[in-house]
Design a protein that fits this description.
This is High nitrogen upregulated cytochrome P450 monooxygenase 2. Pathway: Secondary metabolite biosynthesis. Its cofactor is heme. The chain has about 575 residues and is of the alpha+beta class. The protein folds into two domains: about 25-100; about 190-465 and about 500-570, Cytochrome p450. Helix content is about 55%, strand content about 5%. The chain contains 27 helices and 13 strands. The protein has a four-stranded mixed β-sheet with strand order 1-2-7-4. Strands 3-13-10 form a three-stranded antiparallel β-sheet. A two-stranded antiparallel ribbon has the order 5-6. Helix 20 (about 385-395) packs across helix 25 (about 515-535). The radius of gyration is 29 Å and the shape is globular. The protein binds protoporphyrin IX containing FE. Protoporphyrin IX containing FE (HEM) binds near residues 506, 514 and 519.
Length: about 575
């Protein structure tokens, strides 16, 4: 009897076998899965790899491998995987979240919203709304000068920490551009180069391209394109969308300067080649990816993720080839990037030139056109400033087209700077990061963490600009005598006056600041001078001017709404009166 019972039990097909083949008990196996999840988190924390192969190995290979270990307790591999994989992923996520919220996290001492401390996905989603400049300003109002805006990132608006973050001895470029420029791109544009040595090497041709001599060589193009813009605006019989026209101008002039031509949007009064839209279309997703570069690097490997970028690269390559073979009648930016004078010890490669030629168009067109559109917007909203500027421009007489004279016009420069202070064309900027820990002012940035300075927030800080930091007051840029003379009521109390020009950083600062700053000023001064001289601008009837600010969107570059304007010629100020260059 007992024999029979025993043999029938031992002959049952599976259970006893399971008990003998399982290496670990069910509980021990599941604990091992949790442990593996924690280890994978630690590996990622140490190595920060964006490689899909590494992700596959760690996030798929490990849990599916562990599923085999659990097989004896589950019966089928599918059941084992269904138990192990979610547990593994849950452990990775829980380990990450707990660590990020733990009091021993290196940034635990810095205040910030819970969701920001948990994941960068939160600010990434906020950025999709186009108002991240307002988001960061509100965070600083609530939490103070240093805010933890990501698990491993600080936003800093302490004036004493800006220099050590961005300045000459500041941090190197951070992960921001990793999410915007595909890993697969063989040669990155200057702006995306994180290695400090390599960045310095690649920056040299740019420094030559914007030397005083080089800028002199661009004057003719700047005058020609500025005149074309003003003539075009004045030629419109009805309401003109000045926002579009400044963008047409931006693309046309940068194409001239970067590749010896190729864009005639002003003439066509539309973006016939799709160049502008090719660049702007990707900005929203690029901004999202700049927060979560690991996701960007995955998406960039999918054809859909880079179709616009590819189209632009093809365009830039074609233009560069045309420019190389066709030459140019003037020394353009390409001339210097290409080292056609043969002054460099090391000649740039063709791939570098194509990449940087494309960058010139991306970096130089939208930024300058936004600055111009903002300037005209503020002038039309402030008639007194409009009149004061017009008077200064008129006083120039025949020198209105002279860039050296324009550079010394105090009110003109005050208007341009005040516009860029209130609405910097790059509203937030990019992050910075070094391998070691660093003191940023009196704040310690532990190794492995990033920091950035939110430009818009800094510009609106009353410690830097007072009185009325949110108001358009070009007079704040003038000497004390002039301020008192023009706006005695506003500037009567000198104790209220703060004007920290070191904290005016629309072009960023330090070794990775804007390479084209002087060209941008040259263009802006020329366009504004000519427009003031020749045209009377006013908002189109029925336009609610507050809409302009509403429409401003921060996708690293600014996306702007329409600016409906009526332009009428000023008497005695025709193109012929001041020299027609078209
Ligand atoms: C009002 C107009 C402009 C503004 C406000 C502006 C602003 C900026 C800012 C804030 C940066 C730093 C970006 C970062 O932190 O990642 C930058 C970089 C750069 N800008 Fe501009 N920019 C303007 C016009 C131009 C023009 C006309 C050019 C000419 C090609 C240009 C070329 C560049 C380049 C090449 C860089 C990269 C510098 C580097 O990484 O070393 N920009 N610009």
């Amino acid at each position: 009897m007992s024999n029979f019972t025993n043999s029938s039990i031992y002959e049952l097909p599976s259970r006893p076998k399971l008990a003998t083949t399982a290496l670990l008990s069910s509980t021990d196996t599941l604990l091992a899965v949790v442990g593996a999840g924690i280890v994978v988190h630690l590996i990622y924390k140490k190595h920060e790899s964006y490689e899909p192969l590494v992700a596959c190995a760690l996030l798929l290979g490990v849990p599916f491998g562990l599923s085999a270990l659990y097989l004896p307790h589950a019966g089928t591999f599918a059941w084992a995987a269904l138990t192990v994989v979610p547990l593994f992923w849950g452990s990775v996520v829980t380990s990450i979240v707990l660590y990020r919220l733990a009091p021993w996290h290196p940034l635990a001492g810095y205040p910030g919203p819970l969701l920001c401390r948990v994941s960068k996905l939160y600010p990434a989603f906020v950025s999709l709304g186009g108002k991240q400049h307002i988001f960061y300003t509100q965070l600083h109002a609530k939490y103070g000068d240093v805010v933890r805006v990501g698990p491993n990132e600080l936003s800093i608006c302490d004036p004493n920490a800006v220099q050590s973050t961005l300045g000459n001895t500041g941090l190197g470029k951070g992960t921001f551009w990793d999410g915007r420029v595909p890993f697969t791109q063989p040669v990155k544009p200057l702006i995306a180069i994180r290695d400090k040595k390599e960045h310095t090497r690649r920056r040299r041709p740019w420094t030559r391209a914007f030397s005083t001599d080089a800028l002199k060589g661009y004057e003719e193009i700047v005058i020609k394109r500025s005149s074309q813009l003003v003539n075009l605006v004045l030629a419109q019989k009805s309401v003109v969308n000045l926002s579009d026209f400044t963008s047409f101008f931006g693309y046309d002039i940068m194409s001239d300067l970067a590749f010896g031509g190729g864009s005639e949007m002003m003439k066509a009064q539309k973006d016939s080649q799709g160049l502008w839209h090719m660049i702007e279309a990707g900005q929203k997703s690029a901004t999202f990816m700049s927060h979560v570069p690991w996701l960007g690097s995955l998406l960039f490997r999918l054809p859909i993720g880079i179709s616009q970028l590819k189209a632009f690269r093809t365009y830039a390559t074609r233009r560069a080839a045309l420019r190389r073979t066709g030459g140019s009648s003037h020394k353009d930016i390409f001339h210097h990037l290409m080292d056609e004078d043969g002054v460099a010890t090391e000649r740039p490669t063709i791939a570098e030139i194509v990449s940087d030629g494309g960058l010139a168009i991306i970096a130089g067109s939208d930024t300058t056109s936004s600055a111009l559109a903002h300037t005209f917007y503020f002038l039309m909203s402030h008639p007194t400033a409009y009149r004061r500027l017009q008077a200064e421009v008129d006083a120039l007489g025949d020198s209105v087209l002279n860039p050296s004279k324009q550079a010394h016009m105090s009110y003109l420069n005050a208007v341009i700077n005040e516009s860029m202070r209130l609405l910097p064309p790059v509203l937030t900027g990019s992050n910075r990061k070094d391998s070691g820990g660093r003191m940023l002012g009196s704040h310690f940035l532990p190794a492995g963490n990033a920091a950035f300075v939110p430009i818009y927030t800094l510009h609106h800080d009353p410690r830097n600009f007072s009185p009325a930091p949110d108001a358009f007051l070009p007079e704040r840029w003038l000497s004390e005598d002039e301020r008192q003379k023009l706006e005695p009521k506003i500037f009567s109390n000198s104790l209220d006056y703060a004007h920290n020009t070191n904290m005016f950083i629309p072009f960023s600062m330090g070794p990775a600041n804007c390479a084209g700053k002087n060209l941008a000023y040259q263009e802006m001064r020329m366009v504004v001078c000519l427009m003031m001289r020749r045209a009377e601008l006013k908002f189109a009837e029925g336009y609610n001017s507050e809409q302009w600010i509403e429409d401003v969107q921060d996708f690293f570059i600014t996306l702007k709404g329409p600016l409906p304007v009526v332009a009428t010629p000023r008497k005695g100020q025709s193109a012929a009166d001041i020299g027609d260059f078209i």
